Amino acid sequence: MIKILLVEDNQEKLRDVLKGIFAIAGIHEEHLDKARDLQEAKSCLKQQAYDLMILDISLPTTSDVEPVRDGGLTLLEEILARDIYIKPREVVGLTAHADIQEEMRGRFDSELWSVLHYSNANVAWLDQIQRKIEHILQTNRERTSECPELADICVLTALHAPELTAVLKLPWDFQPVSLECDPTQYYRGHVSTKYGRLSVVAASASRMGMPAAAVLAMKMINTFRPSYIAMTGIAAGVPGKVELGDIIAADPSWDYGSGKNTASEAGSSFEAAPHHLNLDPFIRSKLEKLRNDPSVFEGVRRSWPIKIATPLSMHLGPLASGAAVLEDPTITSNIQAQHRKLLGVEMEAYGVFAAAHEAPHPQPRVIVLKSVCDFANPEKNDSSQDYAAFTSAQAFKLLVENHL
After folding, report:
1. Which of 166, 210, 240, 336 could form a disulfide with 351 if both were Cys (CB 3.0 to 4.6 A apart)?
2. CA 176, CA 82: separation in Å to the nearest integer?
């Protein structure tokens, strides 16, 4: 696996570089991101870790203005100076101007990087880029063989049954894996997607709640170094906004118990101070594509062995986390006051978001898919938990196989 960022505004150069990169065995479109200007490049570098950045030296700030002679160098200096960016592992500068190459050589050399002279008459620059990519691919293969615990996707649940059980029933050939000095029982599987074969590791937390979910999420991030950390399972829904079995994709997530309890002559009160963590824009776009295809959810509903009359839907919106199981609609109403578009409440999602948010770079992208099993009222029971765990796991399957 390799991830490359190509920052280039010249169409001829872009075409030549792409032709050379895609000539390398194993390199496909999903391994490459493209940016046409400094603004697009900065956006990419805030969200994704890259093995290699191929950087044009003369770049415009935005696509509607003329290139700046040393725009690429300006970007490079900002990447090195500010920790809001994920520093690429390797950088290769590329310029059609020999004088700019010579001028920039010392700065690139100081970081053990290189700057090459592009020419459509002499492809020596392309040979060097291809060798660089092949070297990175070989190093990544060796690292993976030395660290067999690496995975592309990690998925966790709060409960073994019915939540993890529903995940392990996916046709991904899960097998138990035990790690030395780690009490958690992991399961490793593989999934074929339209972009390639991905490895998946699944596990359930030691108990319900944000602390246990955050601990397991951080362990999985540090051990398996996934590109995605996901959570599936069950949640309580807000009546009138969702139905039993409906999938809620959390965006944003927060701890509804965060705030201050105060006392006065009028009595005690709670002043909420929620800290919202939002979904990655890339993941949100994938989830929106999945949500907007109702036919796939009709297939999920019909595949459940018991007839379900209510149509199945997926919702993208606020999901609040808290420390207690709720059966009091008054409390749910108070949580709704924190976000008028609230779709549901549960006990773990914010812990997973927080773990990924605080993890070392490169940080995984977070996906939380919780399905509605009750409405947090006195009529609450466990009769819909199996169905909700099933629809959550199936939605995760559809996302991974068709959109990641």
Report:
1. 210
2. 42
pLDDT, position 330: 64
Extract the tokens encoding 196.
């390639």
3-state helix, strand, coil in the chain (%, to 5): 40, 25, 35
Contact 217, 156 (CB under 8 A): yes
Q: What is the pLDDT of residues 200-255, one digit of tens each?
A: 999 999 999 999 999 999 999 999 999 999 999 999 999 999 999 999 999 999 99
Give the pLDDT band of residue 329 (cuts 50, 70, 90): low
Tell me the backbone φ, ψ of residue 352, rounded to 5 degrees.
-70, -45
How do strand 365-374 and strand 32-35 relate by DSSP bridges?
unpaired
Are residues 232 and 157 in contact, defined by beta-carbon separation less than 8 angstroms? yes
Q: Which residues contact 376 (CB under 8 A, 6 or more apart)?
A: 236, 237, 326, 327, 328, 329, 331, 332, 345
DSSP secondary structure string, 17-77?
A: HHHHHHTSTT--GGGEEEESSHHHHHHHHHH---SEEEEESSB-SSTTSPPBTTHHHHHHH
With a CB cutoff of 8 Å and minimum separation 6, the contacts of 265 are: none
Q: Which domains does the chain have, with CATH numbers?
A: 4-146 (3.40.50.2300), 153-403 (3.40.50.1580)
